[in-house]
Amino acid sequence: MSGRYAAAGAQDVTTATPGDSALTIEGGIDQRPQIYDFTSGFGGTPADNAIQTQMVRTSAAATMTAVVPEPLDFDDIASKTTTGEDVTVEGTQAGTPIFDQIINQRATYRWVAAPGGEVMIPATVNSGMTWVAFHPSYTLSHEVTVHFVD
Amino acid sequence: MRRANNYSTLIEGGEVPSTQEASGFTCGHCQHITHVKPFCDPADMGGLCKVCDSLICSPCYGARMKGGPCVPWEKAMERLESKDRFLRSAGIIE
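Predict the joint structure of the above. Result:
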């Protein structure tokens, strides 16, 4: 029986394009993680910067700081999905972004899927999803929280 | 919108806080998240794939109109996964 998990990550220093990812989720040969909720926001002193925020598939592993997904039901087993934050070496991005919007730094964006509308990650090692934001002059944090079904 | 399968909110701070909400759908072919604003031109939001009967995004709709195949995301995933299993069984990747 699949379980629901939450993972939160941050990129402390947002850079210019192509940017460094705040959170990356990587699947495995045993499961297809299904993303049904994510929230994206920015730290630092509020200002009116228009920051491009993307959610992109990846096809190779990233170098990142490990994050342990938190089960939303305490009785669930540990998640088998690899998650990490503060990516230093990006995984290979595959295809066009799943989500691509210009979002004001002051704004918090949340996306929720109805059953049947989840974004699915293939059951292959290193296939994953990453959240990245970039701006030519904004250099503070980008923070993402994701809920997924393992 | 009908057949919406996701919902978004954009909460903006500042002197006059505001909240924008939008329904949308994930493309049946590539899973791109498309927001649909009320009363928007249907041509701007994509289209319906008449083979798999799912809403698809504008680029995928354009590809279908040019004669491209219908490849639902589930099918695309199965292809990726079978290729991965083959390469793994052949010892080409670990």
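Helices of chain B lie at 42-45, 58-65, 73-89.
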